[in-house]
Amino acid sequence: MPSPSPDSVVQTSLHGPVLVVRIDNPPVNALGQAVRAGLLAAVERAQGDDAVRAVLLVGAGKAFIAGADIREFGKPPQPPSLPEVLHRMEQLDKPVIAAIHGPALGGGLEVAMAAHYRLALPGAKLGLPEVNLGLLPGAGGTQRAPRLMGVVAAAELMLSGKHLSAKAAQAAGLVDKLAEEGDPTAAGLAYAEELLAQGAGARRTGELPIPDAATAPAALDQLALETARKSRGLFSPARIIECVRAALELPFEQGLKRERELFMECLNSPQRAGLVHAFFAERETAKIPEARAAQPRPFARLAIIGGGTMGAGITVSALDAGLAVTMIERDAESIARGQANVEKVYDGLIAKGRMKPEAKAATLARYRASTSYDDIAEVDLVIEAVFEDIDVKKAVFRELDRVCKSGCVLATNTSYLDIDAIAAVTQRPQDVIGLHFFSPANIMKLLEIVVAAKTAPDVVATAFELARRMKKVPVRAGVCDGFIGNRILAVYREAANHVLEDGASPYEIDAAVRGFGYPMGPFQVSDLAGGDIGWATRKRKAATRDPKARYVEIADRIAERGWFGQKTGRGWYLYPQGARTGQEDPEVLAIVDEERQKKGITPRSFTHEDIMRRYMAAMVNEGARVLEEGIALRPLDIDVTFLFGYGFPRWRGGPMKWADIQGLPKVLADIREFAQEDPQFWQPAPLLEKLVAEGRDFESLNRPA
Ligand code: 3H9
User: Fold this and answer.
1) Is 347 helix (H, G, I), strand (E, B) or coil?
2) What's the rounded Cα separation, in Å, for the pair 382 and 306?
3) What would you measure as the largest C-alpha separation in the chain, in angstroms?
4) 3-hydroxyacyl-CoA dehydrogenase NAD binding domain: from which residue to which, for each copy (predicted)?
């Protein structure tokens, strides 16, 4: 796309003595090169034109300015830089006023802070969320915010990335005045006139004293300790602290210099690359061919079949999206249990003060339950969440086919079963789709939307619209055992089992995976989810397992003892008296040893790096297969699946982004090395070999579908 001209994205016009500078760079007025150049030109005009007595900055459209143009990160920098532009603006000797409506985030708030006065309209959102992108405010924000709001409050704003309302920003000292609802230019002009009438001049933020200078050093030490504990593995938070410390200890100009150095360190870090990838990837997954080709079918009334944990979680998501829900259960007892599961969620929110009892009653007014399928004849969309068994599901779909009105979307929440086979029992396979929610369904953001062979495009579009209404992150998947996430999971879990049998303890493997940035390791996850679940899957797959493939029986030995994890008090770990954090279990280690001996395996030692090379190589290799089979549309869909459904550390961007950052030749070389021990398990995916041969990476496949 050709870059716009500076005067098209920053328009200036004289209103009496006030030069109105309007930033108009849709969709969110990001500070790309042309905007920076336009702002600089506006500052120069204001400086040189005696008719200008004040400058008013406003944003066009729905935002003031949402920050630096994130798309420019990682590319060669184009002058003028934002710090330079803001320095010139701050130095103007005529008052500069920012009238803020909508988001003023990151570099956008930095523009406002370099102005001399700030007015905020209702709906303004002010924040410094750079930390979410692996960055710190790099255009003077770390030096100006402490001078407006105090060092500690500024540090907290930057470390949390949270947005402040207009009112909260005024209370914090970021904003001088609040305006009524209305046009930012009109409100800004009125404020400018008021300031001019008072004889107000330039009030440079960089020249202001730090309000909490006396108490800040001790508070900052405390905050630094907390940050080190909380921001596991993250690069930029400690540097944010360093910057605000510089604001406290150094003159303004030197503080800016320190900020620049630390900003550049963050900008060049792989964490910035991972987090920026995650930012765009999660906005990209809804851009699918069907969304362009078809309109969603209208829906307002849903039926959920089954009131277990999943069904209840989905019901809550649907109710929260403003939909009406009828839950179908077998009998009165199951109806009562289903309703209790739903109410438990709302009661939890009420107990935490996050919901008013009246709101619960109003929400539940849209909920009903029945034992009769005939009661859902008129619903627009059904989500089946019954027991994970193909025959049970087929029976449900025969019923749905019998009762549901024509055009009703019929969805299954299966996590791995063949949706084509389920669709085939109906007379309307075009209306059948998979909606794979993750547990707890009212909390987990990921929704795999599984498109079966005959699913109609408008049904796919409807599913994406449902995801949007439920505030889920949707990922389009194709039909195979486990779709995107669980299919890849099965393979890297198997790689972990191999490492276990070959010599690493489950505790070492969990520690390596946590060290990589996951909140939990795979054996902890198994204990949390229940070891019986994985055991059932293994038994189901036993009949089709290749007898020549390596199979590790250790997990079966644990499950056979009834050690299913937290719910039974022991699994891979011990949980005495209902403890939630497990203790290492010598008996488990003895079982592991016994199994190794049975197979004549002499245990060898693995470093955390050895463990992770295998874990990740297995993940990426299966990811490449999922791509070449068209199960995932793009590598970014796999990344988003793992970021939102499997606890993959966001700052690594997802497994495919991780592979790109490592370099695909290195990942392929690892796979080939491991293949020398087990050529069957470690067959390189042809797509991976092809990309390496062509000198390409996964990113090259991330084109909009
Ligand atoms: C920074 O400022 C660094 C400085 O300190 C240092 C400089 C030296 N750039 O989210 P939406 C796109 S770091 C480019 O769907 P919403 C977005 O991709 C930056 N593009 O809408 C999407 O594109 P598409 C600090 C951006 O209404 C479209 O805009 N700022 C940017 O739900 C709509 O976005 C931030 O981190 C950007 N900065 O939410 C703020 N922002 O239509 C990041 C958005 O092609 N942005 N886009 O998919 C946000 O938090 C939300 O986008 C916002 C709007 C709240 C503004």
Assistant:
1) helix
2) 11
3) 91
4) 302-477
pLDDT at 70 over 60: yes
Q: Among candidates 409, 413, 391, which has minimal Cα distance to 306?
A: 413
- Looking at residue 430, what DSSP letter applies? G
Per residue in 351-398, pLDDT tens?
999 999 999 999 999 999 999 999 999 999 999 999 988 999 999 999
Residue 249 within any structural domain of the chain: no
Cα of 396 vs centre of ligand 1, distance in Å, is 44
Backbone angles phi, psi at 321, to 5 degrees: -85, 5
Cis? peptide before 440, omega within 30° of 0: yes
Domain span at 101? 6-207
Question: Structural domain tally of the chain?
Answer: 4
**Is 162 part of a structural domain of the chain?**
yes
For residue 141, the ligand 1 atom closest to its alpha carbon is: 5
Structure tokens at 640: 């988003």
> Identity (one letter) of the amino acid at 83?
P
Q: Please list the residues that pair with 432 across neighbouring strands.
A: 410
440/570 same-domain check: no
Question: Could you confirm whether 110 is annotated as catalytic?
Answer: yes
Phi, psi of 473 (to 5 degrees): -100, 110
Domain containing 581 — which CATH number?
Answer: 1.10.1040.50
The H-assigned helical ranges of 198-295 are 216-230, 236-249, 252-267, 270-284, 289-293
Query: How many whole angstroms from 282 Cα to the centroid of ligand 1?
Result: 12
